[in-house]
Amino acid sequence: MITWRRLTENDFPLLRDWLEQPHVARWWNHETSPEAVARDFGPAARGEEPSEDLLAHLDGEPVGLVQRCRLADYPDYLAELAAVTDIPDGTMTLDYLIGYPALTGQGLGPRLLASALASLWTEHPSAPCVLVPVVVANRRSWRALEKTGLRRVAEGELEPDNPADGRAHYVYRADRP
């Protein structure tokens, strides 16, 4: 069973450990000093930023992180994505990671995403859909989205999280059931 709770500052050492894992670092490209993690995740943890960082637990054990937000709360990102696909008012987006390599490749990603979507539909009743851009090179990520039922609705050039990646992205969509 997957459960969720808001990330707190007490979770930063765990998050830092996850961000340092090669399979996460490859795609998230975050600084991992304690100061950088506090800088990047502290505002959401304290409720000072509109995004939501949620810690996923499987049978009570932390296994991953999902970030979700309304695209309208981040106008620059909204404008960049709107150049690639139509964005209905109230659309949300999410990003995700599985913390440790031993937990990957076992179907946890689609389970985590399905649970995250179910939670999002309940907690954000005005969201008509979710859009998730994924760098083309991150096949595992976009395959997890497909296995969860999201459909590819666009391809386009977006700023990558990791400068090592090209700008080519797929955009996936899930509509409110």
TrEMBL record:
Parts forming coiled coils: none
Keywords per UniProt: Antibiotic resistance
Signal peptide region: none
N-acetyltransferase domain residues: 2-177
Gene3D superfamilies: 3.40.630.30
Domain of life of the source: Bacteria
InterPro entries linked: Acyl_CoA_acyltransferase, GNAT_dom
PANTHER family with a match to the protein in the record: LYSINE N-ACYLTRANSFERASE C17G9.06C-RELATED
Protein name: N-acetyltransferase domain-containing protein
Protein species of origin: Streptomyces albiaxialis
